[in-house]
Design a protein that fits this description.
Elements lengths: L2 H36 L48 H18 L3 H10 L7 H33 L6 E9 L8 E8 L4 E9 L9 H15 L4 E6 L3 H10 L4 E4 L1 H16 L7 H17 L6 H15 L22
Parallel strand pairs: 1-4, 4-5
Antiparallel strand pairs: 1-2, 2-3
This protein binds zinc ion (ZN).
Amino acid sequence: MSVKRQFQSDASTRERKQNMKRLEHHSKVLETLFNEATDRTEDSDNLLDIHTGEEAVSTTNEIDVQTDPPPRIHHKSMQARPRFRSAGQQVRIHVGCSKGILFAGTSPTKVLRVLKSINCYTITTRTFLNHQKKFLQPAIKTVWTKNRNNIVQKLKETNKHKELVLGGDGRCDSPGHCAKYGSYTIQDLTINKVLDVQLVQSNEVPSSVHMEKEGLVRCVRFLESENLVMKTIVTDRHTQINKWLKENQEHVDHRFDVWHLAKNLKEKLVKLAKDKQCTDIGEWIQSILNHLYWCAVSTPDGNGEMIAEKWLSLNNHIINIHTKHGRVFEKCAHGRLPAA
Ligand SMILES: [Zn+2]
């Protein structure tokens, strides 16, 4: 064997070993999720029915799997139906397929259509939905609850639970005012971990615009139930949230998120720059947004007067005046500018 071929063979063996390791790891993770979700031991895998998730009547390893008939295959060497070592292995591979689709966030219909179009033996959309309902969603819930409890426990152990700095934001299933579901997420900004996610359906509240506030209220209830105390919360400028926090959580320091502010400002500036008389603004947009971020970042103590004066100094700076801006922020922080 030539050196080159030897090298190629070594490389392919290494690759195969790595793939095997990866597969083993994936199947182990899945097995854990699977067992947690179903509370079954490994031995009982053999007795699970692929469609219902319930125990099969048969006591042998043979399970009557009622899937669609295998697609017709033109190439003789391809197998229409793969052979599995046991029914347990078949279940694991099929649930693994559903897991891959769900966790990757792709469309099951599209993925399964692709597999069918290349004559690859696979599960049906109905089976995917069954797996999702019976195994994957309970598994996600179990793992999420366990991880969240660990985070809460750690916060309490390190005594950080009495002064949480949180960020919160909501999202809807569709933009506009006719969304059906909205979720609200709160994250601890010091450890960058999500503490709670609450789902609100629009018919639980007067209208879909109330979903965001309701989500936050539920998150706060969760914090209270766990004896977690919010010190600061950063949100967007949602008026209902602003009002609710002022009235019900007076002790909390409520801040607005600069990212949302910058996003809103950018939309206005872009619109303005389209006006024939204001086209010069277009060249300033990025600098103005940078300045907005700088105003917040360069004032860690949150001094409102200082932030306001820094922001208003923008008008002077644009017309080449860099001093006498205000009482607390007198002159620009930048060095000497090159002559234009
Ligand atoms: Zn300046």
